[in-house]
Amino acid sequence: MKIGVVGVCASGKSTLIKQLTAAGFDARHIAQEHSYVPTMWRKITDPDILIYLHASFATTLQRRNSAWLLEDWQEQIRRLQNAIENADLTIETDALDPRQVFSQVVVFLNSFDSQSAE
């Protein structure tokens, strides 16, 4: 099962992908937030499962320790819109640590795998 992960910068994508890969899942980063092609996530990876990680602008500022602008974050949300609408799982990561995000994803993947086996 191919898993695609999308989200704004500093939402936790890289950390989640490392955790999923270490656990034996085929997880891939899709840099949809940087693409002008709305369906790039599908054209490049065409995942079986698409996961969208969301982080608020304030949270991204804390995690990145940078001075990017609200307009930059809003543009990434705009570029992610098609992926957001097609995501199988959306997780708001603001109040979660990486372990909690990973746990939610694994629970979802296990339930998804069980459903597809039926």
What does this entry show, briefly?
This protein has 118 residues and is α/β, with parallel strands linked by helices. The protein is 52% helix and 17% strand.
Can you tell me about this structure?
This protein has 118 residues and is of the alpha/beta class. It has a single domain (2-96), classed as P-loop containing nucleotide triphosphate hydrolases (Rossmann fold). Helix content is 52%, strand content 17%. It contains 5 helices and 4 strands. It has a 4-stranded parallel sheet with strand order 2-1-3-4, with helices on both faces. Helix 1 links the parallel strand 1 and strand 2 (26-29). Helix 1 (13-22) packs across helix 5. The longest helix is centred in the last third of the chain and has 20 residues, at 98-117. The model has no long low-confidence stretch (mean pLDDT 92).
**For the largest beta sheet, what order do the strands appear in spatially?**
2-1-3-4
Tally of individual domains: 1
Question: In the CATH scheme, what's the topology name?
Answer: Rossmann fold
CATH class: Alpha Beta
Characteristic key phrases:
four-stranded parallel sheet, 118 residues, alpha/beta, 52% helix, 4 strands, Rossmann fold
Topology:
Layout: E1 2-7, H1 13-22, E2 26-29, H2 40-45, E3 49-54, H3 57-64, H4 70-86, E4 89-92, H5 98-117
Helix pairs in contact: 1-5
